[in-house]
Amino acid sequence: MNTSADAPLPVGEVSRLIGGWIDRLGAVWVEGQITQLSRRPGAGVVFLTLRDPSYDISVGVTCYRQVFDAVADVVSEGARVVVHCKPEWYAPRGQLSLRAAEIRPVGVGELLARLEQLKKSLAREGLFAPERKKPLPFLPQLIGLVCGRASAAERDVLENARHRWPAVRFEVRNVAVQGVHAVPQVVQAVKELDALDDVDVIVVARGGGSVEDLLPFSDEQLVRAVAACRTPVVSAIGHEPDSPLLDLVADLRASTPTDAAKKVVPDVGEEYERVRMLRDRARRCVGALLEREERGLAQALARPSIQDPHRMIDARAEDVTMLLDRGRRALRHQLDRADSELTHTHARVVALSPAATLKRGYAVLQREDGHAVRAPGEVEAGETLRARVSAGEFTVRVGTDEA
């Protein structure tokens, strides 16, 4: 349909068109929590408001009295229900509502089954993995606390924490801890505290309650908000048997708000005592170390080498002198023996040399080619030979046998 500023549609026509489009929608099953319930005596129609606690969205629902009477004994404000309904458009007011044809209460067993399915789905994503848990600071300077206004949980955390460490400071966010407003308020408070740089740890605390009362702390939106926090989060919801999904995604689970205060804040008396014990142990360790070193020093000073340090040098000096004399004697003996052997060898060489033989009157006959004559048959008659004697040499001629 074409419209313009010069040819606008009347409000009634727009409302009629919207109603026609909504009438074409089919029936749907809707789940939510009843926040308002109006049953006028004698009226044939019951009015109620159905709210989504996770997203803070509400829608009006109408039904005939006989439809609501079928579940009137088990359904009241705050109950979670599943409604089979058809969207309706009330043109005079331009208001959307749902016309309920059937209302079914959501039982505890069904709620627990859904929570178990959600738990498995989030676990597969790794939101409950131990390795993503952040350690808590030893001594937080500022603690963020999310709890109900003037609740026992708030009192337990504040009083126990300040009793353990009086200087601790808190940044408190009071929110609804059950009902349709709980999830958006708790999520907003956690995000605000996580954005503060001074907050060292966040505690989400609530007292015990029924499964329905603790449902907001198993909401997927809250679980994901806590998983995205950069600040460590402590879950202190309900009592020991209670186990909402917030306990699994939090960095630390405390069984009660009082237990959360004990786990987050150290006890000043216990820390003083621990410091005293460590100081005494250190003093004992240092004393024992000094005594051991003193004993070792006394034993070292009592050694002869320390009392008379020159004794060892003197003893070694005598050994060196003795070894030096022995070495000299051994060297002299070796030299004397070597000299004697050299003299004897020289005498033998001289005695056996050809010159000594020649001095005794012998001569050596050599032919012209320098070979010595060893037998008469090696020379011929008339051959000239060179005779070598001690004082020199001369030539001789070989005579004949006749001569």
Automatic annotation (TrEMBL):
All copies of domain Exonuclease VII large subunit C-terminal, residue ranges: 127-348
Keyword terms: Cytoplasm, Exonuclease, Hydrolase, Nuclease
GO CC entries: cytoplasm; exodeoxyribonuclease VII complex
Top-level taxon in the UniProt lineage: Bacteria
Catalysed reactions, semicolon-separated: Exonucleolytic cleavage in either 5'- to 3'- or 3'- to 5'-direction to yield nucleoside 5'-phosphates
Enzyme class: hydrolase
Entry's Gene Ontology BP terms: DNA catabolic process
EC number(s) on file: 3.1.11.6
Chain segments annotated as transmembrane: none
Domain OB-fold nucleic acid binding intervals: 10-104
Cell location: Cytoplasm
UniProt xrefs under CDD domains: ExoVII_LU_OBF
Keyword Nuclease: yes
GO MF annotation terms: exodeoxyribonuclease VII activity; nucleic acid binding
Nuclease recorded as keyword: yes
Family the entry assigns: Belongs to the XseA family.
UniProt cross-references to PANTHER family, sorted A to Z: EXODEOXYRIBONUCLEASE 7 LARGE SUBUNIT
Assembly, per entry: Heterooligomer composed of large and small subunits.
Protein function: Bidirectionally degrades single-stranded DNA into large acid-insoluble oligonucleotides, which are then degraded further into small acid-soluble oligonucleotides.
Record-given protein name: Exodeoxyribonuclease 7 large subunit
Species the sequence originates in: Streptomyces gancidicus BKS 13-15
Organism lineage: Bacteria, Bacillati, Actinomycetota, Actinomycetes, Kitasatosporales
Gene coding for it: xseA
